[in-house]
Every structure is written in C-alpha cells, then in structure tokens.
C-alpha cells in the first residue's frame, strides 16, 4: 500500500519534475496527485491505506510550497476523492479483523461513480490552483 500509493507517486513526481521545471527542461505545468478523503481524517479500519493517503497530501502540500512554485513554475495539487463504486465493490479487508463488520457495511454507503469522480478531477484541474 505504501509502495504503490505513496512511494510510487513520489517517484513519479521526481521523474516528471525535471521535464516541467522552468529552470531545467520545462515550461512549468501542473501535477495532480489523486488521493482520498481517508487521507484527511484517520480511518481506524484502513490504517495503512489512510497513512499512505496522509502521506500523499503531506508530500503534495510540501511540493506546492511557494519555495518551489516560484522557482520552477510547477503547480501541484491533491484531489481527495470520496468512495467510488469501483472501490467498494472490491474485496476490502480491515487492518485488524474486528474492524471487518464496519468494512462490510461500507458496501451499502453512498458512493460516487468513477465517471463523476473523473469529472470532478477535471474541474479541479481547470481551476489550476497551486496547493
């Protein structure tokens, strides 16, 4: 979970930044890191997932700091998506077994479709605010 959600995102940013950085090869731009509302508040049943998403938000906020943005012209934002139908249809396992009844109830919670989620990400990109 940490390798995919956090380390993978950090490696991707490190790879693309030289091509976007105005002081190197680029013309500026926007990096959009997709994260989750579970990264905004602790999730007692998805501990590792929550920690990875907290990390994405912290990394994004740090990289979006004016210290970097004024130098490289690369805006960075995190989009915190809520539960999607695709997510809750997967096999979900609580970090500790006694949290599983909560996880099972999540299947009946209101969810957005992947299409609605994607449309909201596009709206966020159109705003192109750093941070």
Task: Give a quick rundown of the structure.
This protein has 131 residues and is an alpha+beta fold.
- Please identify the structural class as seen in this structure: alpha+beta
Tell me the CATH topology: Rossmann fold
Low-confidence segments, given as residue ranges, are: none
Helical content stands at 40-55%
Care to describe what's here?
This protein is an alpha+beta fold and 131 residues long. It has one domain: Rossmann fold. 52% of the residues lie in helices and 12% in strands. The protein is built from six helices and two strands. Strands 1-2 form a two-stranded parallel sheet. The longest helix is centred in the first third of the chain and has 19 residues. The chain is elongated, with a radius of gyration of 16 Å. 17% of the residues are buried. The mean pLDDT is 89. It comes from Drosophila funebris (Fruit fly). Keywords: Oxidoreductase. GO terms for molecular function: oxidoreductase activity.
């Amino acid at each position: 979970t940490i390798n995919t959600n956090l380390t993978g995102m950090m490696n991707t940013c490190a790879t693309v930044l030289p091509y976007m950085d105005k002081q190197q090869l680029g013309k500026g731009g926007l990096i959009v890191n997709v994260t989750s509302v579970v990264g905004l508040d602790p999730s007692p049943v998805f501990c590792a997932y929550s920690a990875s998403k907290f990390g994405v938000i912290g990394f994004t906020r740090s990289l979006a700091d004016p210290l970097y943005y004024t130098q490289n012209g690369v805006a960075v934002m995190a989009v915190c998506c809520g539960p999607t139908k695709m997510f809750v249809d997967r096999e979900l396992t609580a970090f500790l077994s006694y949290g599983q009844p909560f996880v099972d109830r999540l299947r009946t919670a209101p969810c957005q479709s992947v299409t609605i989620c994607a449309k909201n990400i596009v709206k966020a990109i159109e705003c192109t605010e750093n941070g």
